[in-house]
Amino acid sequence: MNRIRIAVQKSGRLHDDSLKLLKDAGISIDNGREQLKATSGNFPLEVFYLRNGDIPQYLRDGVVDAAIIGENVLVEKGEDIIVAEKLGFSKCRVSLAVPKSAKYSGVEDLQGARIATSYPNTVRDYLSKKGVTADLHIINGSVEIAPNIGLADAICDIVSSGSTLFKNNLKEVEVMLKSEAILAVSPEISSERKEVLEKLQFRIKAVLRARSSKYILMNVPNSKLDAVVKLLPGMRSPTVLPLAEEGWSSLHTVISEERFWEVIDELKQNGAEGILVAPIEKMVL
After folding, report:
1. CB atoms < 10 A from the CB of 134, how many?
2. Which of 15, 18, 144, 185 sits in a 20 to 30 Å window from 7, CA-based?
3. pLDDT value for 17
4. What is the mean pLDDT of residues 82-104?
């Protein structure tokens, strides 16, 4: 079977999260220190460790078949590349920021401004839609210092917590794009390797479903079972098992973690007791 070639970021948080996803999908990767390529011992897959900004071109040229990459990079450099799956981690924003002391009432205040950024295409497209023209200074690296040294009036950069902006006396004023890690596919991928990619996607989806779901167990009086079941939409229907104590049952089901916190009070009001919440390692539908 042909090995699929997948690119991940060479270093950083997205690198770590990408390798964790592959590991959780049961893929063992034997990579030594400073290696640029590694092979899986239990799945037909090779991992290429590349600079984030170079990955779209590698995909476009067919050097790699797929990549785990930030959506923001694909918007900037690879809008023609297929997104196969949104992965739900490494979330961030691509935002415009100005000095805290600057007066800002709207994007029109950036007309004619000098903006330092590593995302010129994203900024240009966003401002064009708003009818604003600015002078873009393309910087590869930390852009937050640009206003402090008089190089720019504003910046565009990725923002996660906002702490970097705060430390550099900047304030976020426009969110241009919300981004997360995605699985991108080369337009040059062969049919044989596409089959391997589909097997990988199957595993990834099982992992992602498990991350957003919880297995819950609770004891419920039989007289309240119907009411509790209506509160807990699961994969199909919950499992109900009789307890040793007459008149009570144990109810098992799967629910999204967010949904669980919405209904916890209603569960208790309907007599549910001994509610246990457990993580799920994989979830195959």
Report:
1. 22
2. 144
3. 93
4. 93
